[in-house]
UniProtKB/TrEMBL annotation:
SUPFAM superfamilies for the chain: Arabinanase/levansucrase/invertase, Concanavalin A-like lectins/glucanases
Top-level taxon in the UniProt lineage: Eukaryota
Signal peptide: 1-16
Similarity-based family: Belongs to the glycosyl hydrolase 43 family.
One biological process term in Gene Ontology: carbohydrate metabolic process
High-level lineage: Eukaryota, Fungi, Dikarya, Ascomycota, Pezizomycotina
Cross-referenced InterPro entries: ConA-like_dom_sf, GH43_C2, Glyco_hydro_43, Glyco_hydro_beta-prop_sf, Glycosyl_Hydrlase_43
Occurrences of domain Beta-xylosidase C-terminal Concanavalin A-like (ranges): 364-458, 524-592
Name of the molecule in the record: Glycoside hydrolase family 43 protein
An annotated Gene Ontology molecular function: hydrolase activity, hydrolyzing O-glycosyl compounds
Alphabetized PANTHER family for the sequence: BETA-XYLOSIDASE, BETA-XYLOSIDASE C-TERMINAL CONCANAVALIN A-LIKE DOMAIN-CONTAINING PROTEIN-RELATED
Keywords for the protein's UniProt record, in alphabetical order: Glycosidase, Hydrolase, Signal
Length: 599
């Protein structure tokens, strides 16, 4: 007993005396929420900073960049795609799976290079305009204006990455799925003009139907080729595989121990692990980032979509690397612990601090707020003269579903949001809205794509539209209370919950806005809460009267657990195809983290 205690004390003393050598703890995900397909670099010449890009599909601003100096505290520092003129075509993409796919971020010649694909998934596989491959470059990722307009290059695949060989030649490597491949192709490229040479197949992968995110690393006289493989997109069989060659053009030989990283066939909460990128820190230790969904193998409830996770790897000389499998907490290489400040545009990515936006006068909208495709800037006015300290939304004709569930249209879609970043959270706003024309609507939404969203808003509907008896927990005195403000044409403001998804959603719940709530100044509190890992609760009540909040709907998050993106929590205003133009005023925007589930 005594001896054990002594030994324990001794070993603690030994490790304490070499504190800087102690392993670090990496807490996953490092960027919670909708941040898939990570690509990272480490730049000692830029204040020893790590930079990572992620894909953004139809979200705008697009291609978020995170930075860190210690691999533990990460901040969003801006977006590569931040102006419409950089890539006008994002306005026209159809389908929820379209937009910006997997970017690769690299640094060469004192320049940041970001190579990616703008996908219009509505077009046939054989249509060469379906995949628009593009290059952005910039000198200063902290300055949005520094990023160039897109330079297009001819490539019929996706997930391109730039690589500079020791002889100075630049190459693009990209992937093709089963419709034509599967294989990985490579060509020489002039990255300034987008002129490419002949494409050559360099590897066919290990049998997955859709190789993605190929990356080349030069080490110990070898070219190592890394790819993710799966049956297409991301699923439970997602994995990372590697091959190597003495020549950049191949032939590449598969690692006999593939896959190098996967959580397939495990019971881990972290599933679909794949789409990795590798980088070395200032001590020469190797790290990997990847995407993962916190779903468990049931794979039913993952509203935050594909998030960025990180792990450590060891890469002995002349051999293939060994990765530590992904979990909620990973013992990683020693790293410096002092948190050096990063000039971010928001809080730290893994922060549990609440967010409270009050839209004060003369203050632009925070840069982390997100639209779906390009916004019409004049539809979003912080602190308008008639109602300071609110955000005025001008309604779009198109609602969150739009015409065919796919297209934003030239008139835009009035919607602004932030990512859901915690398993349990509360998101609420105050709404001041007096609709005057039929179908005018404004409210809150848990939005995954135009085909997947759960909304609760105030909408002007004919008297008698209520379905109040279907609202659980709504007291009878509210369901059939008389309302004030009935207009001559019999229109009444109602609260409406509705959902849209590929899986069944509850029927709309509609009830007239109680007169007693309207008398109290007419402002409403609208709230979306995740009460557990599988359900949201939508509530409404008079602003400033928590005790009068009423649950309108408890709804599974399965309708927003799908595809490539992750849930955005936000506000919208629409005329639902009508002629209404009544603005909606939102204030007191709060996002309160409650709990993060990791294992
Ligand atoms: C997207 O769909 C809309 C309406 O269905 C159509 O008018 C438009 O041409 C499509 N855009 C592209 C780029 O295919
Ligand atoms: C792409 O290919 C087309 C036709 O094949 C050609 O006209 C065009 O110049 C090429 N663009 C680039 C950037 O190489
Ligand atoms: C790789 O795929 C291509 C195209 O499908 C095929 O021509 C080639 O034989 C394959 N290579 C190997 C080594 O299987
Ligand atoms: C998981 O198990 C299935 C069935 O044995 C197998 O076909 C599949 O390849 C495994 N996936 C991975 C990534 O190992
Ligand atoms: C320290 O981290 C490395 C990299 O993950 C791992 O290989 C090693 O086992 C860890 N050591 C301890 C004592 O946990
Ligand atoms: C409200 O409706 C319920 C049934 O839906 C009924 O039992 C109740 O009497 C009604 N209350 C009033 C005040 O009309
Ligand atoms: C989550 O909450 C919903 C709605 O309250 C409830 O029906 C469900 O049983 C809960 N699930 C768990 C695992 O507690
Ligand atoms: C959404 O708008 C379209 C017209 O653009 C309309 O037909 C549809 O009914 C609206 N959806 C809802 C739920 O109001
Ligand atoms: C919208 O305005 C146009 C032109 O004034 C009119 O023809 C149309 O009926 C209006 N639509 C609705 C839904 O009121």
């Amino acid at each position: 007993m005594f001896l054990t205690t002594l030994l324990l004390c001794l070993s603690e003393w030994v490790s304490a005396s070499r504190g800087h050598d102690r392993n670090s703890t990496i807490v996953n995900p490092i960027f919670p929420g909708f941040y898939p397909d990570p690509s990272c670099i480490y730049l000692p010449e830029r204040e020893h900073t790590f930079f990572c890009a992620s894909s953004s599909f139809n979200a705008f601003p697009g291609i978020p960049i995170h930075a860190s100096k210690d691999l533990q505290n990460w901040k969003l520092i801006g977006h590569v795609l931040n102006r419409r003129e950089q890539l006008p075509r994002l306005a026209e993409t159809n389908r929820s799976t379209s937009g910006i796919w997997a970017p690769t971020l690299r640094f060469h010649d004192e320049t940041f290079w970001l190579v990616t694909t703008l996908v219009d998934d509505d077009r046939p596989q054989k249509d060469s305009s379906r995949l628009d491959n593009i290059i952005f470059k910039g000198k200063d990722p902290y300055n949005p204006k520094s990023w160039s307009n897109a330079v297009h290059f001819n490539f019929t695949g996706y997930d391109p990455e730039p690589f500079w060989d020791e002889d100075g030649k630049a190459y693009i490597t990209g992937a093709h799925a089963w419709q034509v491949g599967p294989y990985i192709e490579q060509a020489e490229v002039d990255l300034d003009t987008g002129k490419v040479g002949d494409w050559q197949i360099i590897w066919n992968g290990t049998g997955g139907l859709a190789p993605e995110g190929p990356h080349i690393y030069r080490k110990d006289g070898w070219y190592y080729l890394l790819a993710a493989e799966d049956s297409g997109g991301t699923g439970l069989n997602h994995m990372v595989t590697m091959a190597r060659s003495k020549k950049i053009s191949g032939p590449y030989e598969a690692n006999p121990r593939n896959p190098v990283l996967t959580n397939a066939n495990t019971t881990s909460y972290f599933q679909t692990v794949g789409h990795s990128d590798l980088f070395q820190d200032g001590n020469g230790n190797w790290w990997a980032v990847a995407l993962s969904t916190r779903s468990g193998p049931e794979y039913l409830h993952y509203p935050m979509g594909r998030e960025t996770v990180m792990t450590a790897m060891s890469w002995p000389k002349g051999e293939f690397p060994i990765f530590t499998p992904i979990s909620g907490e990973i013992s990683g290489w020693p790293i410096r612990h002092e948190q050096e400040d990063i000039r971010g545009v928001g809080p730290y990515a893994n922060s549990d601090d609440p967010e409270h936006l009050t839209f004060p006068p003369s203050t632009p909208l925070p840069a982390h707020l997100t639209h779906w495709r390009y916004p019409i800037p004049s539809s979003y006015t912080p602190s308008p003269p008639e109602k300071p300290n609110t955000l005025r939304l001008t309604p779009s004709r198109i609602n969150l579903t739009a015409l065919n569930g796919n297209y934003a249209g030239a008139e835009g879609q009035t919607f602004i949001s932030r990512r859901q970043q915690h398993t349990l959270f509360a998101y609420s706003v105050t709404l001041d809205f007096s609709p005057t024309q039929r179908d005018e609507e404004a409210g809150v939404t848990a939005f995954l794509t135009q085909n997947h969203h759960l909304d609760m808003g105030v909408i002007l509907l004919p008297r008698g539209s209520a379905t109040a008896s279907s609202i659980p927990g709504l007291p009878a005195d509210l369901s059939n209370s008389t309302t004030g403000g009935i207009s001559d044409d019999g229109m009444v403001p109602h609260v409406r919950f509705r959902g849209e998804s590929y899986v069944p959603v509850p029927k709309p719940a509609i009830f007239p806005l109680p007169e007693s709530w309207r008398r109290k100044g007419g402002k409403l509190a609208l709230e979306i809460r995740a009460c557990n890992a599988s359900h949201y609760v939508f509530s409404v009540g008079p602003a400033g009267k928590r005790s009068e909040m009423r649950v309108v709907m408890e709804v599974s998050n399965e309708p927003v657990s799908w595809g490539f993106t992750g849930t955005l929590l936000g506000i919208y205003a629409t005329s639902n195809g009508g002629n209404g133009t009544t603005p909606a005023y939102f204030s007191d925007w709060r996002y309160t983290p409650v709990e993060q589930f990791r294992d």
